[in-house]
Amino acid sequence: MQNLNRLIKENKVLVSENNALKTENAKVKERISQLEENAIKRVTIQKDEVIDGLRK
Fold first, then answer.
1. Measured between alpha carbons, how far is 34 from 28 in angstroms, rounded to an integer?
2. ∠ CA(7), CA(19), CA(23), 5° rounding?
3. pLDDT per residue over 9-35, tens digit each?
4. What is d(CA 12, CA 6) in angstroms, rounded to the nearest whole number?
5. CA 33 → CA 10, 42, 44, distances in Å?
6. For the whole prediction, is pTM greater than 0.85?
7. Any alpha helices (H) in the chain, and if so which ranges?
8. Cα four-point dihedral sign 16, 17, 18, 22
C-alpha cells in the first residue's frame, strides 16, 4: 500500500511537470512562429527593394 501511495504521488508530480512543459512548449512554438513571420517580412522587403532597384 505504501508503494502504491508513493507511485500515486510520483504520478501527480509527473503530471504537473508535464503540464508545465506543455505550457512552455506552446510559448516556444508561438515565439518561433513570430520569428518566422518577421523573417518572411524582412525577406519580402529586401526582395521588393532589389526589384525596385532593378527597375530604376
1. 10
2. 165
3. 999 999 999 999 999 999 999 999 999
4. 10
5. 34, 14, 16
6. no
7. 2-55
8. positive
